[in-house]
């Protein structure tokens, strides 16, 4: 999967060089490109924001740098935009799918595991990280008219910008790509995959500070272990996330 990120703080995305995401990039499973929005601001001070038209507090991101940055990424990307189709020739291979542009925003639809699964099928994601009071509305309109755009929130709280939200989404999506997580079984039983929270986990020793691992887990009876884990998942979900059960 190709992922482009546009941000005024490229350094945030250094975190995606670590751990599983770093390995997935080294192995070519995730092709991540981080772009500094200021490189697309063409005045001497590389200005990316201005005061809100109509008045009010804070600053709004100007449309021109966003237009230049996104046009630069979209050139050559997407269905029908390669050189062969522009020359009216038959394409030699499968055309690249049209990129999906995601603008992280607390005003967007809420990101879920179901959305991560859906987005893991995309060939090309572009994350546009806004700061300040947001991005000039015409940027969303321009790219929604030309292609696919989604505003996505990672939950009901406010961050200073889209960077941390983008990192969370890239990790949630990236770990679902084939080959990224070594043992794909570990993707099956985790929280949210069955619409339930995950059951509690234990390892050795069987007793620690007087606290024993539940006997059933030491029984070797796999049907009983599965039943116990399911019961724990349902009980935990009912207690902390009854909304997931529709209660
Ligand atoms: Cl995607 N952006 C910002 N700035 N704040 C958020 C968010 C996104 N999701 C939740 N809070």
| CATH level-1 class of the largest domain | Alpha Beta
Give the number of domains: 2
Number of strands: 9
How is the largest sheet built, in terms of strand order? 2-1-6-5-7
Enumerate how many helices there are, as a single number. Answer: 8
Outline: elongated
Spans of at least 5 consecutive residues with low confidence: none
Q: What is the beta-strand fraction?
A: 15-25%
Helix content: 25-40%
Q: For the residues shown, what is the average pLDDT?
A: 94
Descriptive report:
There is one protein chain. This protein has helices at 19-26, 63-74, 83-86, 113-119, 137-146, 162-174, 185-188, 222-240, and strands at residues 2-7, 31-36, 49-50, 60-61, 100-110, 124-128, 148-153, 207-208, 211-212. It is α/β, with parallel strands linked by helices. The chain folds into two domains: 2-79 and 96-184, 3-Layer(aba) Sandwich (Alpha/beta knot); 192-244, tRNA(m1g37)methyltransferase, domain 2 (Trp Operon Repressor, Chain A, Orthogonal Bundle). A five-stranded parallel β-sheet has the order 2-1-6-5-7. The structure holds 6-chloroguanine (6GU).
Question: What secondary-structure arrangement, pairings included, does this model have?
Answer:
Elements: E1 2-7, H1 19-26, E2 31-36, E3 49-50, E4 60-61, H2 63-74, H3 83-86, E5 100-110, H4 113-119, E6 124-128, H5 137-146, E7 148-153, H6 162-174, H7 185-188, E8 207-208, E9 211-212, H8 222-240
Parallel strand pairs: 1-2, 1-6, 5-6, 5-7
Antiparallel strand pairs: 3-4, 8-9
The chain binds 6-chloroguanine.
The site of 6-chloroguanine has 12 residues, from strand 5 and helix 6.
